Every structure is written in structure tokens, then in C-alpha cells.
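Students often ask why inverse folding is considered easier than folding. One informal answer: many sequences map to the same fold, so there is more than one right answer. In these notes we will look at a single instance of the problem. The structure comes first.
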């Protein structure tokens, strides 16, 4: 028999742990202390909530519980050690406790900017933010980077040490300092959205958090790339209710009920795209948003403007070249010039070691092979894709395709 209180605590953790962690970093001034405080808070909830009941505002309750338990622990340690540094640190965070109300609205954004500080190595910034801001595991981050978990773990450890030794401030920088951090910050928000989008289901909160952060960024700096990222997220998120069927199986874009797409989100994105056009500048996120808008405007899959999408992918590959962009371009190429042309591009991409570990490379190859009637090759490609897929809905989709080919 399930325990309702335990289920509530677990649900609160899944939904709110990143926001609670971000607030605790602000209040305690330390990533390591914040992580300990987060776990302390949920341990306290497991003890108190069954007896005293569910609090009116559980997020605020957990932030306060984690903060107070940490201060108590530091106070006991300071009384024993009487180290001058410990006493000074304790005085500082106790003063912050008295002067700062528990305000968490912008804590996630502050934490993103801290993790993306220019003093940190470029390759560590996004990994650090995804771990500390989003609570993703090193394995999940390594999939987003198409690299090894051990490499990600080393980057995060070194970045944390530099934040600590250089006393990097936990703030949103002044407006004049925003541009130099913008690229990394936008990358974090985009990867946060993609992680929620890819995992779907309970991970939907990550996409919602990314949408919220993208709006905050536009308010801070209405740069064309900020507008482009928000437009892209809005269009992608507008399809969230149609991406999975009631059993949790993937529904391909061609098969989605377009009447259920959120037209208000799409309209908001179109306004943002018009602002980008008027600015005379368009970057990688603006181009991706323009591609997504081509799909959103088409009443049916058959009416999709594939030549324009292929042209936009050509521009995107010039602005922000990557093997994943090239893979998506191969899909568009297959629609414009035929499956053989698209498959040749995918096979070329399989020469990249990173793409050899990416399940979508094999799924795209399998689909094109299937459409060309090369069924045995398609089965092999789908089987390989299944070994690299990590999400259950992805695995179920690939297995359904394998069964259909059998």
C-alpha cells in the first residue's frame, strides 16, 4: 500500500528541487552546503509532514528548513573549532538570513549566470549549470553533450573549485556585462528545455522552467538571440500535448493532431520572429525558431515548406555548425531531394564518433532505409538505435518499428 505523504514528498522533490537548490545557494553561498541543505530539508519533511501535515507553501518551508539545519550545523562546528573563518562565514549567512526574505523568483536565473561566469572554463559552464541548476545527473548531461560521464564529472568538479576559490558572486550581472555571458546562458536554457522535451512525462517541469527563464532573459536583454530562443521554446512547447499518446508512445510530427497545438504560443512566437526580422539580425536560435515556425504554419505534413526548411538549415549550419544540425538537415534534404540523398548524408555523419553513440542517427538512417525498401538494413539500424536510446518512450517507439518490420 502506498504512503500518501511519501508520495507527496517525492512529487515535491521532482517538481521543485532545482528551485529550492538555487535559493539555498543564494542563502548559503556554497554549492556543497546547498546540496547538503536540500537533502536535510527533505529529510526534515519526512519526519515532520506525517505528524504536522502538509505545509501551506512547501517550497518556502523546505528552503527555510534546509537553511536553518545548515546554520545549526555550522554553529555547532564553530563552537567546537573556534576557527575565525568559520565564525565570519556563519555571521555572514546569519545576517543574510535576517536581511533577505525567502524570494525564489529569480534564483534560478542568478544561478545560471553564476555557473556561466567567464572565469570558468568554457566547456564547464553549461555542464555545471545543468548539474547545479537543473539537477541533472552526469549521465544525463553527457548524453546532451554526446560525451562521456567521467569527462563531465571532472569539468563540474573543477568549475566548483574555481567558483569557491575566486569567490564568484551569485548575481545576475549588470546590463553591460550581460553580452559576454549570454551565449552560455542561452545554451543552458535551451539544453534544459531539450532535456524536459526529450524525457516528457514527469520531466515536463524542466521545459516549463526553461520557458520561464527564457522570458526572464528577454525582459533583461531583448537581444535577437534571446527573442529567438523564446520563440523556439514557445513553438516546440506548443506541441507538448500531442507528442505522446495516452499510453506514453511517441507520436511523430506527421501524425500529431495539429488542432491541439497551442495556437496562442505559436502566435506569440510569430510576434517575436517579426521583431527579429525588423532588427535585421538573426542567429542560431532565430534560425531554429524560423524552422519550427515552418512546421507550425503547415496545416498538414504534406503542406510543409521543405525547400525553405532546407535553406534555413543551410544557414544554420553556417551560423552554428554541429553534427546534430547536419542530421536534421539530412531529414529535410530527404524530403526535397529524395531518400537516397538524405541517407548519404546520414552515413557520412556516422563517421563522427559522437554520432555513433547517438540513437537518433540510427533512427533517421533506419527510417530512410525503410522508405527505400532496404528492410534488412533498416532492422539493423533500428536495433543499434535501441542500444543507445535511454528514454522509455524512445525505446518503445523503436521496438514498435522493429516489430512492424518483422
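Output (designed amino acids):
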Amino acid at each position: 500500500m502506498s504512503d500518501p505523504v511519501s508520495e507527496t514528498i517525492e512529487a515535491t522533490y521532482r517538481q521543485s528541487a532545482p528551485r529550492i537548490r538555487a535559493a539555498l545557494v543564494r542563502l548559503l553561498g556554497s554549492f556543497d552546503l546547498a546540496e547538503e541543505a536540500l537533502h536535510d530539508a527533505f529529510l526534515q519533511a519526512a519526519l515532520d509532514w506525517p505528524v504536522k501535515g502538509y505545509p501551506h507553501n512547501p517550497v518556502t518551508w523546505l528552503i527555510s528548513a534546509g537553511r536553518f539545519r545548515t546554520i545549526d550545523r555550522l554553529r555547532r562546528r564553530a563552537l567546537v573549532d573556534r576557527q575565525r573563518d568559520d565564525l565570519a562565514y556563519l555571521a555572514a549567512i546569519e545576517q543574510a538570513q535576517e536581511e533577505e526574505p525567502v524570494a525564489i523568483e529569480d534564483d534560478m536565473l542568478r544561478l545560471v549566470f553564476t555557473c556561466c561566469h567567464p572565469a570558468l572554463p568554457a566547456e564547464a559552464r553549461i555542464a555545471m549549470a545543468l548539474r547545479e541548476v537543473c539537477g541533472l545527473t552526469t549521465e544525463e548531461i553527457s548524453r546532451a553533450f554526446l560525451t562521456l560521464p567521467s569527462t563531465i564529472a571532472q569539468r563540474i568538479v573543477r568549475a566548483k573549485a574555481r567558483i569557491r576559490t575566486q569567490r564568484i558572486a551569485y548575481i545576475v550581472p549588470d546590463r553591460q556585462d550581460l553580452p559576454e555571458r549570454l551565449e552560455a546562458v542561452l545554451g543552458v536554457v535551451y539544453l534544459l528545455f531539450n532535456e524536459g522535451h526529450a524525457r516528457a512525462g514527469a520531466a515536463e517541469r524542466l521545459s516549463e522552467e526553461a520557458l520561464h527563464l527564457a522570458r526572464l532573459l528577454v525582459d533583461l536583454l531583448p537581444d535577437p538571440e534571446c527573442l529567438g530562443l523564446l520563440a523556439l521554446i514557445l513553438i516546440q512547447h506548443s506541441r507538448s500535448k500531442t507528442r505522446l499518446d495516452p499510453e506514453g508512445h511517441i507520436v511523430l510530427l506527421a501524425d500529431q493532431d495539429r488542432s491541439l497545438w497551442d495556437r496562442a504560443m505559436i502566435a506569440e512566437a510569430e510576434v517575436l520572429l517579426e521583431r527579429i526580422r525588423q532588427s535585421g539580425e538573426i542567429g542560431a536560435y532565430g534560425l531554429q525558431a524560423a524552422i519550427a515556425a515552418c512546421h507550425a504554419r503547415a496545416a498538414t505534413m504534406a503542406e510543409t515548406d521543405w525547400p525553405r526548411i532546407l535553406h534555413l538549415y543551410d544557414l544554420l549550419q553556417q551560423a552554428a555548425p554541429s553534427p546534430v544540425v547536419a542530421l536534421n538537415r539530412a531529414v529535410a534534404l530527404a524530403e526535397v531531394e529524395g531518400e537516397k540523398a538524405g541517407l548519404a548524408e546520414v552515413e557520412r555523419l556516422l563517421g563522427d564518433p559522437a554520432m555513433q553513440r547517438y540513437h537518433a542517427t540510427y533512427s533517421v538512417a533506419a527510417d530512410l532505409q525503410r522508405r527505400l525498401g532496404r528492410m534488412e538494413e533498416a532492422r539493423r539500424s533500428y536495433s543499434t538505435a535501441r542500444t543507445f536510446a535511454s528514454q522509455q518512450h524512445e525505446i518503445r517507439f523503436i521496438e514498435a518499428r522493429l516489430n512492424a518490420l518483422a
